Amino acid sequence: MHFFGPWLGLTTCYFGLACCHRTFNEQAILSRSKSGFEESRLVPDLLPAFNPQGILAIHFAGEKILRHPGFSMSAQDTQAGPTFQLYPGFTGQLNPADTFTLIMVDPDSPIHANPSGAKLHLLATGLALDRHHEPVETYNLVNNTQFLVDWLSPDPEPRTGVHRYTFLLYKGVASQASVQPFQASTFNRSGFNLAQFTRDAGLQNSYAGAFMNIDSASPENLIRQNAQGSSASGRSIDMYTFSITIILSCFGAIYLS
Q1: What is the number of alpha carbons within 13 Å of residue 224 lying toward its C-beta?
Q2: Does this UniProt record's set of keywords contain Signal (predicted)?
Q3: DSSP state, 149?
Q4: Would you give the distance in Å from CA 8 to the centre of its chain?
Q5: To 5 degrees, how large is the angle CA 134–CA 67–CA 21?
Q6: What is the phi-psi region of residue 84: left when phi exceeds 0, alpha when psi lies from -120 to 50, beta otherwise?
Q7: Digit-coded pLDDT (tens) for 113-158
Q8: Taking the mean position of all CA atoms in its chain, how far away is CA 183?
Q9: Complete domains list, the chain, with CATH
């Protein structure tokens, strides 16, 4: 009994610290996500407020992953439509039967300095959850029906500034009346009013979100737009990016496709 007592205490302490560490990391990521939207002025340019309850990871081809707000990418990196993973926060617990609506917009269209209305790049509703338990609880977002608005890869016009391509995830399915305009032959992706759509669709505050910066003046985008081709990557990596990569790796992102 005397032999097992200290080991039991150490084991309990270890798991207690591990749980606290996971909570701290998760809260840090959610806090950084909130701050990123505010510092970039997506709040209030696009949203009145942003208080994420979960972490949205966006996977592009070539193992390029948007893990935190404001990651810099080139338009070439994002040509193919991405896949999506969701990590629920401790305050945003999920039911496997939950469904979601996903929106991707460019609020800086056509010019960052003088936008005339957001451009809609993706709209999907009725997304289901494909649950995974190892090594931590995470979900793939699965589309069982056709997208309401198919993926349109970012393609900013040259020298129109930095575009903040923004992904927002909402709990629930958009109402039938709210999606009818997107099925009309006269539908135009430009001039998308996010606030009006979410209000008409009956969607509450966004559950999770992320955004990437694409600089229309970066060499990769200018070369691609001139049809000369480029294999260079426009991503920049700083110490924060590295630390977030390590944290999300602990969440199990490296185990999922």
Answers
A1: 23
A2: yes
A3: B
A4: 41
A5: 55
A6: beta
A7: 999 889 999 999 999 999 887 677 889 999 988 899 999 999 999 9
A8: 25
A9: 4-255 (3.90.280.10)
